[in-house]
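Subject: sequence -> structure tokens, single chain

Hey, anyone have a minute? Need the predicted structure for the following. Not urgent.
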Amino acid sequence: MKKIPKPTKRQAVQFLYFNMGGVSFFVLGYAIFALLYGVMHMPWWLSKIIADAVGATSNYFIQRYVTFRLESRHIDSRTLLSKFGILSLTNIVIDYAIVAGLNALGVSPFIGLIASASFFTLWKYVWYKLWVFKPKRLPSDET
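Reply:
Had a minute. Here:
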């Protein structure tokens, strides 16, 4: 049986930075959701759309300019935004299905947000690393 390689220090630090983006997404989104849904009594789905837009913007900037800054420096911003947008739209469908499904079972959307965020921690890291911010091979990289 093949052993799973131990992460390097750089990979561990990168994962910590990635989580910083996720935490910003979650905290900003949760705070805005709490204000709009909990205080202002807007529908949960509209509150979540607004909260997600703010959270995703914060997350993008942290992932692009902190977590994956080295990987993405040679990638066109349009390409990054396109991939990030496609993944974000896909994630929204999954996210809303989790929250709506739990809500239909009688679980508060506040708890649904936490359950969804837990799922997306590893899911997003893998997609960001292997697709969104994966650098193209440059001719100078080949030896």
